[in-house]
Amino acid sequence: MPTKSPLPRQPVRGSATGRPIMALLDLLGRRWGLRVLWELQEGPLTFRALQAACDGVSPTVLQQRLKELRAARLVVHDGGRGYVLTEAARRLQPNLMALHDWAEDWAKDGGSEEQE
């Protein structure tokens, strides 16, 4: 059974109202969703190049994620160049980098608070 692409203002996992943040977290939390966006930040990739960049994700899963990301208007297919991020996805990138930086700091700290 095909799954519906998570979009703002439509019910998604964790939110019956489809709050935009919940729709985004549902979309990015799906297997390989965030990784696809991450790999496309350097520029366009063909399907096969994207599959290789994503450590050999299965073609079926990659096709489903691309379908969802296209429905969410975060990725488009640009003919011969392959898949590229939209302007909306490029505006998301600094926020993802901030999360990346935070996660790196968190990892350096051991990922948990000191227990007293």
UniProtKB/TrEMBL annotation:
<dbReference type="InterPro" id="IPR002577">
    <property type="entry name" value="HTH_HxlR"/>
</dbReference>
<keyword id="KW-0805">Transcription regulation</keyword>
<dbReference type="GO" id="GO:0006355">
    <property type="term" value="P:regulation of DNA-templated transcription"/>
</dbReference>
<protein>
    <submittedName>
        <fullName>Helix-turn-helix transcriptional regulator</fullName>
    </submittedName>
</protein>
<dbReference type="InterPro" id="IPR036388">
    <property type="entry name" value="WH-like_DNA-bd_sf"/>
</dbReference>
<keyword id="KW-0804">Transcription</keyword>
<dbReference type="GO" id="GO:0003677">
    <property type="term" value="F:DNA binding"/>
</dbReference>
<keyword id="KW-0238">DNA-binding</keyword>
<dbReference type="InterPro" id="IPR011991">
    <property type="entry name" value="ArsR-like_HTH"/>
</dbReference>
<dbReference type="Pfam" id="PF01638">
    <property type="entry name" value="HxlR"/>
</dbReference>
<feature type="domain" description="HTH hxlR-type">
    <location>
        <begin position="19"/>
        <end position="111"/>
    </location>
</feature>
<dbReference type="InterPro" id="IPR036390">
    <property type="entry name" value="WH_DNA-bd_sf"/>
</dbReference>
